[in-house]
Each structure stands twice: as structure tokens, then as C-alpha cells.
Amino acid sequence: MNQPENTSPEKKAIILFLKRPIAGKVKTRLAQTTGAEKALRIYESLVHLTIDAASRSGADVFAFMHEAGPTGFLFPARFKVKVQQGANLGERMAHAFQEVFALGYEQLIIIGSDCPQMSPEVLKEAFRYLTAAPVVIGPAADGGYYLLGMRGYVPGIFGLKQWSHSGVFAETQQILQQKRMGYALLPELSDLDTEADYRRLKRYLSDLREVSEKKAGQ
Questions:
Q1: CA 153/CA 10 separation, integer angstroms
Q2: Helix, strand, or coil here: 139?
Q3: How does pLDDT run across 155-201, given as a tens digit for each residue?
Q4: Which Pfam families match (predicted)?
Q5: What band does 206 get if pLDDT is binned at 50, 70 and 90?
Q6: How many Å apart are CA 154 and CA 135, to the nearest integer?
Q7: b/e per residue, 173-204, with b = 16+ CB within 10 A?
Q8: Domain residue spans in the chain?
Q9: Residue 187 carries which DSSP code?
Q10: At the top level of CATH, which class does the domain 12-217 belong to?
Q11: Are 184 and 132 in contact (CB under 8 A)?
Q12: Of the candidates 69, 87, 71, which has an alpha carbon nearest to the alpha carbon of residue 16?
């Protein structure tokens, strides 16, 4: 499939959803078999990888923390830190999109920190698709999605009754189809939620650790 050229001067940003790095509070499914401390280290590696990808995407970045207080991460100076608002994930994502669109942005993408295959190229490709499609989705292998982007807010897109299940991507597609709204799809990637996921995907994190170790030794 030919990819659309990104020739649009539209103002674009990435919304990054994060939690503070606290053992026992992050990667809880993973922690059931690895222990809370190892799950925390894996979470921190995922966040660092995601921050690096977002910072090299060419877009502005808004880090929305799950709660107020110290973030626990050292963000690039140009990142803007905000707090998520809403009773569930859908409400929190809807509020974040509406808040950032109100600042004058025209293309927005939201990502979490579960996808170790996240890269600047994935984010740039998503923005390229948004020059032609009103919505772009990156489906995850577990039935959710690792990325969702919009060119203008789509009311009801986060109106799912439940989240964190294998039908999230399919239900989101149904919402868009009911609205007769077109959308573009990115390649399917994998989230890291379990120890089996970690064993299969840890090579993406080891690459980051090697880079970090080289920088620390310089």
C-alpha cells in the first residue's frame, strides 16, 4: 500500500499516558510472575523507550500522568506535563484529546508505554496517515490498540463500556463504522503485559539498555 506524503503544515502533538514508577502499582499482571521490583524495572525501560521515540518524532509531546505529584521521570525540557482526568480510561483519553485540541493542535496521537516496538518511525507514519484520514489506529496483537490518532476530535470514539479486554480494537472499529468515518491502520504490534510477552519482546528493551550504558560510560 502506498503511504501518503506528509506535506501538511498542521500542528501536531503526541499525548503520552503514564503512571508514576511505583513497585506494585505498575505492570501488575507482569508482577504476578516476575515480582513487583522486576516489573517496575521493565516498566521504567518501556517508559524510557517511549519517551525517546516521542522526543524524536518531530511533534510536541504532552505527558499526562495518572495522578498529580512527582512524575518519577526526567522528561525532555520541551515536554509538557499534565494530569489525567476522568473516572475510567475512556473518559481520561477523551478529556486529554479535548484539552490538547483546545490549544490549537490539529493532529493528535495518543500512546501508552506498553509497546516495546514503539519508534519514531511508527509515530511519523501515523502522522502521515492523518494527513489523509480522520483517524489512525495501531492495532495490538492482544486485541487492543497501541496508538490512536485523530485529525479533529471524534465524539464517542472512547465510549466503550469496558476497557482492557481483547475486543477494544474491534469495538472501536464498530464505532467508526457506525459513524461512517474512514480510518487508516498501522501495522499490528505487540504490547508487553505478561512474562511471556517479556521473554518474546525483551530484545527491544536490551537495545535501549545498551545505548544507556554507553552514554553513562562516556
A1: 15
A2: strand
A3: 999 999 888 888 999 999 999 999 999 999 999 999 999 999 999 99
A4: DUF2064
A5: low
A6: 9
A7: bebbeeeeeebbbbeebbbbbbbebbeebeeb
A8: 12-217
A9: P
A10: alpha beta
A11: yes
A12: 71
